[in-house]
Amino acid sequence: MHEMALCEGIVEIVEEEARRRSFSRVKTVCLEIGALSHVAPEAMRFCFAAVAARTIADGAVIEVVELPGVAWCFACSRSVEIAHRDEPCPCCGSYQLQATGGEEMRVKELEVD
Amino acid sequence: MDCGADPAGLKIVGMSSERTIRIERDILGKNNRIAANNRARFLTDDLLVFNLVSSPGAGKTALLVRTVSELKDSRPVGVIEGDQQTSNDADRIRATGVPAIQINTGKGCHLDAAMVGEAYRRLPPLKGGILFIENVGNLVCPAAFDLGEACKIVVFSTADGEDKPLKYPDMFAASSLMLINKIDLVPVIDFDLAKTIEYARRVNPNIEVLTVSARTGEGFAALYAWIRKQAGNQRRPVGDALR
């Protein structure tokens, strides 16, 4: 349940931004979550509601932009898309892959009032 | 257009206080900043730090008890133990004469960088030595949290099942070394070492592999050689590394 800790991190970010940019309500929290990151978007939505209760982000909707997993294939020397870490290169079948994108877990933007 | 009402109840027709702000901030940013501070402190103290991760029962503590007992006479060694409850693991380490700090995470499923920074402050000076962090037994959550370690070591037991690296790929992808423990059980269980390594390298082509038995001591000479190599890498000046 590291999603709870991650959601606490989101609420902290929102609270800091609220102090800095003076807003009092958050309607939407837009996240960027990579396919190779450590969370599933559904788990974040579920946990966020619980963690955000009675904070400035109470009731805010989580929107998730899912980013694809990208890896460098050492066998065919090119960048390829993969959905999971245990997948081979879709072009040549090699497992000699180095993830280069899709590990993101970011708060992209906030819709505030 | 919405006629926005601000918190003071002020309404301005044709104006909305609603807005979208771009912030682009890493959710783990705070942990990563603290981890960077820990890492800087460990380097200043010339300390080599390993973060041991595994499922519960893979034998991390037994492995550490043997390792710290055998290394403690040649250099300073310390241990930070993470568990939801009890100080059993720290007690086992302390019985060897090596200092250990127990972190109880309560409901938490992983150690974070702040917990480790605080625990490190409570350890005696370990300058020039080795610090082992035994994370909470869990193959999922600890993968996401940098503690400031030199690298993660995933401990895997021969009784775990060969496909653990495929089931929990994030942890094997995040680790530099897979330490296969309980290798002495191989004659009495069905365990396919080649298959395990193949699966681990599917998710992390660079992962190194060593086999050990914390019970018999088999394979530990190779583990200590690996640790010495890591110490050498960490101490090598940046100029050397680039050459």
UniProtKB/TrEMBL annotation, chain A:
Molecular functions per Gene Ontology: metallochaperone activity; nickel cation binding; zinc ion binding
Amino-acid positions noted as binding Ni(2+) in the UniProt annotation, renumbered to this chain: H2
Record key words, sorted: Metal-binding, Nickel, Zinc
Gene Ontology terms describing biological process: protein maturation
Function: Involved in the maturation of [NiFe] hydrogenases. Required for nickel insertion into the metal center of the hydrogenase.
NCBIfam families reported for this sequence: hypA
PANTHER family (UniProt xref): HYDROGENASE MATURATION FACTOR HYPA
Family per record: Belongs to the HypA/HybF family.
Protein name, per record: Hydrogenase maturation factor HypA
Organismal lineage: Bacteria, Pseudomonadati, Pseudomonadota, Alphaproteobacteria, Hyphomicrobiales
Gene encoding the protein: hypA
